[in-house]
Amino acid sequence: MVQAVDGKTLAAMLIHASASLDAEKQKINELNVFPVPDGDTGTNMSLTIGTAAAELRQKAPTTVGQATSICASAMLRGARGNSGVILSLIFRGFSRAMKDKQTMDGIDLADAINAGVIAAYRAVMKPAEGTLLTVSRLAGDRAGRAAEEDTGFEYVLSAALERAREALADTIHQNPVLKKAGVVDAGGMGFVVVLQAMLDELQGVAAPVTGEAAPQPQDKADFGALAEEELTFTYDTVFIVRRTPEGKPLEEYRAWLETIGDSLVIGEGDEEFKVHVHTDDPGLALTKAQEFGILELAKIENMRTQRDELAAGKQAQSTDDLEAVEAELEAMEAGETPSAPPEKKYGFVAVAAGAGLAKVFYDLGADGVISGGQTMNPSTEDILKEIRKTPAEIVYVLPNNKNIIMAAQQCVDLVEDKQVIVLQAKTVPQGISAMIAVDPDGEAADNTAAMEAAMAGVTTMEITYAARDSEFDGAAIHAGDYLLLVDNQLFGTEKTIEAALDKLAQESAQRDGEFISIFYGEGVDQAQAQQAQAKFQAACPDAEITTLEGGQPVYHYLISVE
Predict the structure, then answer these.
(1) SS3 for 544?
(2) Residue 345 bridge partners (DSSP)
(3) Cα angle for residues 486, 490, 493 (degrees, 5° grid)
(4) What φ, ψ does residue 8 adopt, rounded to 5°?
(5) How far apart are CA 535 and CA 531, in angstroms?
(6) 444-458 exposure pattern, b = at least 16 Cβ within 10 A, e = fewer
(7) Disulfide engineering: 367 pairs with which of 266, 390, 411, 530, CB 3.0-4.6 Å?
(8) In terms of DSSP bridges, do strands 272-279 and 515-520 run parallel, antiparallel, or are they unpaired?
(9) Number of helical (H) and strand (E) elements in the chain, helices listed first
């Protein structure tokens, strides 16, 4: 039995956990309460711990204090969805409990798990039994008792894992919704996978291979082996350009760069692109770049001089403050966007999937719209980046999905020069109504109250499809059935989309809908959307009805009723 682990071993255990979660994520995703094709708990937990694994590989900690600190910091920013945020909070508790620790024994492990559980419970306003919280709490309880029996790390971890498995099996009985669906909790399953992977690493069980490993680069290049003729061009040029609406198509720039250099790589982001090119005229490349956006950062190295200096065993020449420029480039790639100075009192960041929905938010005054929603929850870092870019004193964040709210809330304490207010917008229609209620000249408290009141007056209806056979409340649901959701609750099923629309139109009439907005998604054309509008107009003749292309995936129709 292993008595204690150091930072290197703990890092390997967490990297193993990341690989195991990646391998099991689809099984975890499929533990959905409803058979809606939007299960993403496994994906969120995998992506969250994956950020920690990447940092641990790069930084190679030697103490458990370093390992848990690196893990907690990476997961805080990489957290996605409620399950990912809770997992990150558990490891934040780990970090606080293990601060300055060189090694970790069984007593330390029990302390770390329980500190993590406390941190997670504090962050959840209404903890429910039969969830990831329950499984981790009971595992922590057992770890504490096990540490009194044997202080060995492996003994305590084994005991915690055994109790976590028992607790997971019991979630189906603790949570009425899970019991109806006949499944265990997906987040709890993810936590069990993490503990099992950590124990596997300790006991020499190989981590699952989820993809071909990338070849590892040498610590440094052998410049002496490069002959003069192998350097076709002189300057290694790297720069970042911020896209602008008036910028030319990037393909034109790519083709032009190939005429003045080689080793061309262009990395494209949503709002910027990074260029790497070897050329004899870097100034020309940078000047041309301004036709495609705003040049932000650049790094230029003379490869011939650098080769000669390094081959002679000397310090390579570099541009002034090259290390600082490189760090700035890497920070931008990592999403560490500098905070924009305030130019106005209020700013708004919203989350929405679909170009049409994004346009609605921009038209209402949003400064940034993050592409995301069901099945693609943005991380805390994604949201943080948009907040920092918003030139306002007070930034409202509209998550527009119940599984994104916790990730957004983590940003509040990460921004020092702006006040961040996260609204409890659980649907896109709620977010839209909140934006409409804003008074640009009003006080923050009054605006917050008005936006919350507007959200409360909205009913959200959705039509999607069943991804698999299931049963809920005694009703059989078959793969391919149309599912009707009202305020995120299953309202019914239908065999045809026409019947589904009829049913929701009648429900809108029952709710005395006066303003109805119909957003049609991917796979629905304008003619079909107009037919849908006709159904609602017939059911609610006095209502003001608007139909817009939302472009959202998974959900055929997203309907707002006020």
Answers:
(1) strand
(2) none
(3) 105
(4) -65, -45
(5) 7
(6) eeebbebbeebbeeb
(7) 390
(8) unpaired
(9) 20, 18
Q: From the CB of residue 238, how many other CB atoms can be counted at a distance below 10 Å? A: 18
Spatial contact of 375 and 40, defined as CB atoms under 8 Å apart: yes
Nearest-5° Cα angle at 468, 466 to 470:
90
Cα distances (angstroms) measured from residue 47 to each of 236, 244, 373, 473, 504: 33, 30, 15, 33, 36
The length of the chain in residues reads: 562
Lookup: tokens for 523: 């796979």
**What residue type is 85 in one-letter code?**
V
CA distance 350 to 340: 17
Structural tokens at position 395? 């930034």
- Spatial CA neighbour of 431 closest among 422, 444, 440, 419: 422
Quickly tell me which residue has 């299953």 as its tokens: 490
Residue 172 has, within 13 A of its CA and on its CB side, a CA count of: 11
Q: Quick check: 60 and 8 in contact, CB under 8 A?
A: yes
CB 175 within 8 A of CB 128: yes
- Strands (DSSP E) found in 92-195: 103-105
Rounded to 10 deg, the angle between the 250-257 and 282-289 helix axes is: 170
- CA dist 540 and 503 (Å) reads 13
Do 45 and 83 form a contact (C-beta atoms < 8 A)?
yes
> DSSP letter string over 449-505?
HHHHHHHHT-EEEEEEE-SS-EEETTEEE-TTPEEEEETTEEEEEESSHHHHHHHHH
d(CA 309, CA 440): 60
Cα separation, 379 vs 76, whole angstroms: 9
pLDDT of the chain, 562 residues: tens digit per residue: 899 999 999 999 999 999 999 999 989 988 865 556 567 889 989 999 999 999 999 899 999 999 999 999 899 888 888 888 899 999 999 999 999 899 999 999 999 999 999 988 887 767 888 999 999 999 999 999 999 999 999 999 999 999 999 999 999 999 877 887 778 999 999 999 999 999 999 999 999 876 543 333 333 334 344 444 455 777 778 778 888 877 788 888 888 888 888 777 676 666 777 777 888 888 888 888 888 888 877 777 777 665 555 455 444 444 334 444 444 445 544 545 567 888 899 999 999 988 899 999 999 999 999 988 776 788 898 899 899 989 999 999 999 999 899 999 999 988 888 999 999 999 999 999 999 999 999 999 999 999 999 999 999 999 998 877 777 666 778 888 999 999 988 899 999 999 999 999 999 999 999 999 999 998 899 999 999 999 999 999 999 999 999 999 889 999 999 9
Q: Could you tell me the two tokens for 113? A: 């798990």
Residue 94: what are its φ and ψ, rounded to 5°? -55, -50
- The two structure tokens encoding residue 549: 């292309």
Task: Walk across the sheet containing 419-422 and list its strands.
Answer: 368-371, 344-352, 392-398, 419-422
